[in-house]
Amino acid sequence: MVEDVCEGIENALNLILSTAERSGNMRRELKQTIFDIVSTLRDLYVQLKTSRDSKSQTISDLEGRVASIKADLEASRGFMVKVHRETSSSAT
Hints:
about 0% strand, single chain, mainly alpha, rod-shaped
């Protein structure tokens, strides 16, 4: 789905450029403005993708840390139950 959106955005930007290039009635300044805007939109899109990828990597790293901490917690709980059982049985 994400690839479909990426392709759709790219197609829309290309359509804007090709329309501007084909238009004979458009002033040169307006064409240049359209080209600049499309360029800016492409740059911003790349920044968004980069940010998304970075955040995805951060989320993956944090999920790994959470899993590790949960495993440590479970191990600690098991150790505490064992110590508690040994203490209560030796007291009697």
